[in-house]
Write a structure and sequence with these properties.
The complex is a heterodimer.
Chain A: E1 10-13, E2 16-17, E3 22-28, E4 31-35, E5 46-51, E6 54-60, H1 68-75, E7 79-85, E8 98-104, E9 120-126, E10 132-134
Antiparallel strand pairs in A: 1-2, 1-7, 3-6, 4-5, 6-9, 7-8, 8-10
Chain B: H1 11-24, H2 36-39
Classes of the chains: A mainly beta, B mainly alpha.
Chain lengths: 139, 40
């Protein structure tokens, strides 16, 4: 294995492949930390609580049917399936796992930017439930 | 306690949980993702 260029990530929102309209992705896999420090301990101690993951996507806006704006407008306020793959051009495997999650679509900025800017939007969605990581399946 | 080495998800259990959640909140359960390649 080696380092790699991060230009092959696949992104599907509600089954629509928006990979070619996304230029930045951050999957934040977090969980709550529950403190279990007790008498006799000399430092804080924690265990894993509920998962609290989120996903940040930067989109290049497009008004075309079944593209960015139409997909996000239709999904706004609902929980939709989001699928991520590190390398879209390669089959799902242990070295290219498939990430699947249900996200509550919120915080869209359908109209955004100054004169002379490219129309873009950056959204951060909370994951409802957990992020599934699988070594089989299709993007 | 043994450390859990397999960090991959049980997809059947995960899908069942997500379907139960979507049903609970009154959202239609989506059809499985189908790529263009699958459809051909």
């Amino acid at each position: 294995m080696a380092v790699f260029l991060n230009n092959g990530v696949g992104v599907k929102v509600n089954t629509v492949d928006l990979s070619d309209h996304v230029n930045n992705i951050t999957l934040n896999r977090n969980f709550d930390e529950l403190e279990v420090t007790a008498m006799g301990d000399s430092g804080h101690k924690f265990i894993k609580g509920l998962e609290a993951s989120s996903l940040t996507l930067d989109f290049l806006n497009d008004t075309a049917t079944a593209s960015v704006l139409a997909t996000l407008q239709a999904a706004w306020g609902t929980n939709v399936t989001v699928v991520l793959l590190q390398n879209k051009g390669t089959a799902v495997s242990a070295t290219n796992p498939l990430y699947t999650m249900t996200c509550l679509v919120n915080g869209t900025t359908d109209i955004n930017g100054a004169t002379g800017d490219l129309s873009t939007q950056s959204v951060t969605w909370n994951v409802s439930g957990t992020v599934a990581v699988a070594t089989t399946g299709t993007f | 306690m043994e450390l859990k080495m397999d960090h991959y998800t049980d997809m059947d259990a995960w899908k069942a949980e997500q379907a139960a959640f979507l049903t609970k909140i009154g959202q239609v359960v989506e059809k499985p993702t189908k790529s263009k390649k699958d459809e051909e």
